[in-house]
Amino acid sequence: MEATSAEPGRPIGLGVAAVASIGAGLIHAAAIGVHAEDVGLARLFIAAAVFQIGWGAVALSHPRRWVGLVGAIGSLVIVGGWFVTRIADLSWIAGLEAHEAPGFADTVCAALGLVAAGGGMFAWLVGDRQIQVPRLALSALAVSALAIPAVVAASSHHHDEAGHTHSAEAADGVVATATDDGHDHVHTDEATVSGAASTETVTPTTVHAHDETAVEPAAATADTSGVTETTAAPHEHTAAVAPVPYDPTQPIDLGGVAGVTPEQQARAENLVAITLIELPQFADPAYAETQGFRSIGDGLTGHEHYINWSYVNDDHVLDPDYPESLVYAVDRASGTKTLVSAMFMLPDSYTLDTAPDIGGALTQWHIHDNLCFAPDANDPTKLRVVGITFGDPPTCTAGTKSTNPNAMIHVWITANPCGPFAALEGVAAGQVKAGEEHLCDSAHGAH
pLDDT above 70 covers what percent of the chain? Predict the structure, then answer.
């Protein structure tokens, strides 16, 4: 670097550390607004930005050895926090319930934080030296070259680290906006459900891949066979969103259903979007079997269910990386199996009455309380369907009836005449809450 005047007792490396810290702080500041819906995460960004920018300014204006130590400790804490969020799920912080893969913006931010920590520690260890006061133009230019595109990425809601996106773009049949690292930010929307004796919060893993446009309530005009036709309620400024048929290759729009709030619509769209992204990893049934899935032996119906029984009572709810059941369409002539749907199953502790609300009138949970199961001959820890119950009270001629049927819901990754959450037809449709009819969302179904 070019030198100008001499100044005794100046810590070496503190100026570079200060510039790097300010750059990292600007990236954190850019991410605050677009994560305002996750209050805990936004507060962490605010704290990080205030410290990094503030410390950088102090280090430049009052270069002291102890200032370097403070900056080194604070920067290491922030970088350490970033590292933890890349390997662990922090369920107690909204927005960090699911760990994320490193992306461009957060990686640049972490790298600048490490530079700040290293420079601060070097200044502390080496101490004051008779040095020429450096011009920091070169350092500032290098930091700007990295920080500016990272700021742009963070402020456009990529949260590049895992792509937390609110835009809807179809790419390779998946509705989500690609980020610099090609991975979409997975985070959770909380759905609170009340049980008989307690209220608990279920956090289904989802991704924002839509425009969160408020939907004006619509007035129901007819309700036949579980299908509600709607007309827009009069309003001075806006009207209900016109229903759009569900096409997995197009942006997801589940608007236009009477009584569905914007939050319910967002949760439903998010669940579809992340399922479209993650579920195809199980497209090959042979691969699914290596991951613990086993067929329940219902392929003759045209749809074959593979269940991973170890997932049913785990900590993952509505998570397409850990789907309890996979549904394959079976070509009876060739035997080819095509993955068409996830069937998410709730743990044993839930019932239809305590199942979480996902999308209001858009979504409907069901159970199967009339199936008879028996251990798989090749793996006694897995179960197969061997028949259905008959008589009153219902009994099984073979196998055993489930005493606690799990609530479940489909999410289709292929077009379906009754929309993305439709149950199968006939006996396979299962049972819904008393007083309800099986939902067929023909407004968003495949036409």
Answer: 67
Q: What is d(CA 366, CA 371) in angstroms, rounded to the nearest whole number?
A: 13
Q: Taking Cα atoms as reference points, which of 188, 164, 184 lies closest to residue 45?
A: 164
Largest CA-CA distance found in the chain, in angstroms, rounded: 98
In whole angstroms, what is the distance from residue 230 CA to residue 126 CA? 73
Give me the count of residues in the chain: 447
Return the domain boundaries, the chain.
3-155
Strands (E), 74-226: 128-134, 170-171, 174-175, 187-188, 191-194, 199-202, 205-206, 218-224
Quote the CA–CA distance of 399 and 390 in Å, as a whole number: 13
User: Which residue has 């130590």 as its token pair?
Assistant: 69
Please list, in sequence order, all residues whose beta carbon lies within 8 angstroms of the beta carbon of residue 308, skipping any fewer than 6 positions away.
291, 292, 293, 294, 322, 323, 324, 325
**8 A C-beta contact, residue 267 and residue 187:** no
Q: What per-residue confidence (pLDDT) applies to 214?
A: 36
Q: Which helix (H) or strand (E) holds 268?
A: helix 262-278
Compute φ and ψ for 410, nearest 5 degrees.
Answer: -90, 150
Q: What is the token pair recorded at 16?
A: 């570079």
> Which residue(s) pair with 175 in the sheet?
170
**How far is residue 203's CA from residue 37's CA, in Å, rounded to a whole number?**
15
Q: Phi/psi zone of residue 283: left (φ > 0), alpha (ψ -120 to 50 degrees), beta?
A: alpha
pTM over 0.90: no
At 97 the pLDDT is 66
CB 68 within 8 A of CB 17: yes
240: helix, strand or coil: coil
Structure tokens at 239: 């009207």
Write the CB contacts of 81 (distance below 8 Å, at least 6 apart in sequence).
Answer: 44
| Burial group, residue 162, by CB count within 10 angstroms (0-12, 13-18, 19+) | buried
On whether the CB atoms of residues 56 and 22 are closer than 8 A, the answer is: yes
Q: List, for residues 357-377, the tens digit of each pLDDT value.
A: 999 999 989 887 767 777 776
- For residue 74, the number of C-alpha atoms closer than 13 Å in the C-beta half-sphere is 24
What is the DSSP code string of 318-339? S-TTS-SEEEEEE-TTT--EEE
Orientation of helix 14-32 relative to helix 39-61, angle to 10°: 150
List, in order, residues 6 or more apart from 1 with CB less than 8 Å away: 134, 135, 136, 138, 139
| Tokens matching residue 343 | 């069937």
CA distance 175 to 244: 14
Bridge partner residues of 220 (DSSP) = 230
